[in-house]
Amino acid sequence: MRSGVVVFPGANCDHDVYHVLKHVAGHETVFLWHGDEDLKGCDLVVLPGGFSYGDYLRGGALAANSPVMRAVVRHAEAGGLVLGICNGFQILLEAGLLPGAMRRNRGQRFECRDVHLRVERNDLPFTRGYRAGQVISLPIAHGEGNFEAPAELLDEIEAAGQVVLRYCDAAGETTDEANPNGSARNIAGVANRAGNVLGMMPHPERASEALVCGVDGLALFAGLGEPRRRRAVG
Amino acid sequence: MRARVTVYPRREILDPQGKAIQGALAGLGFDRVEEVRAGKSFEIRLGVGDAETAGEMLGRMCEKLLANTVVEDYEVEILGAEPAPEAGR
């Protein structure tokens, strides 16, 4: 599998994702430039975290209109894999590839800590390395991760099984105390209907090596390789 | 043509920033403030002559970029024709 990490001005997790994809998960990986419409034949496009375009206007709003995103939209519509992490999730929402919107965190604070997450389904390319219902721990680091959508849209997303990750406690209960930012229904990660586009606020690339802070994120990247092979890690 | 676009969080959505500002105002003694909503304002100069065309363009700008209509509302005000440049400048 060939993967590409988009470099936006102000992105700051691009090298972390590149490192994990290439050196830890072992995928062929290249950088893609925000000003190009060329995806260099990648099967997977990753929109990394950071502060693209300085978060001007709204997080992800300007990046969503950059040249590379025209190609990413075409790639997604053709069934290609797209993963947006943190600011990358915001970009996917602003580009209309995923439903909903982000608001400032409920507590008005930038939240930077490990959280527990429940993997709601493991039949997506991104989650096949996990068990459905598995509780994992990943770091978050964001000021605008408060996922919002009108109630009818939330019902629609739930009914279609598009909620992939929820904030929960260590026992897997999706309590309000376990919700770090006020997201509707504890939603931390959402996929499109077809399941080839995933947006998530937590940072799996920051928890993919024992050297740093846990390895629960690695199964996401490792599982992307061979569609038939299961590689549960950690 | 000059115009002003204001974008606010939707009424039914909690505005944490507005709430924090309201709290700070209360701390300064302005305890009769009943609500604050924090938004954004854009002053836009357009090279079009008639207000109707300008209004239509600005509406599309809001829908496509200036506002995120999932969580924000917008208002467009046409401020009138661009004043003629001063002589000698």
Secondary structure blueprint with pairings:
The complex is a heterodimer of chains A (234) and B (89).
Chain A: E1 2-7, H1 14-24, E2 28-33, E3 44-47, H2 67-77, E4 81-85, H3 87-94, E5 101-103, E6 111-119, E7 135-142, E8 146-148, H4 151-159, E9 163-168, E10 187-191, E11 197-200, H5 218-222
Parallel strand pairs in A: 1-2, 1-3, 3-4, 4-11
Antiparallel strand pairs in A: 5-8, 6-7, 6-9, 9-10, 10-11
Chain B: E1 2-9, H1 16-27, E2 40-45, H2 51-66, E3 72-80
Antiparallel strand pairs in B: 1-2, 1-3
Percent range for β-strand residues of chain B: 25-35%
Q: Output the CATH homologous superfamily of chain A.
A: Class I glutamine amidotransferase (GATase) domain
Global morphology of chain A = globular
Number of strands of chain B: 3
Distance between the termini of chain B: 20 Å
How many strand segments of chain A? 11
Number of helical stretches of at least 4 residues of chain B: 2
**CATH topological fold name of chain A:** Rossmann fold
Instruction: Report helical residue fraction of chain B.
Output: 25-40%
Spell the H/E element sequence of chain A: EHEEHEHEEEEHEEEH
Mean pLDDT of chain A comes to 94
Query: Widest sheet of chain B: strand order?
Result: 2-1-3
Number of helices of chain A: 5
Give, in order, the helices and strands of chain B. Answer: EHEHE
CATH architecture label of chain A: 3-Layer(aba) Sandwich
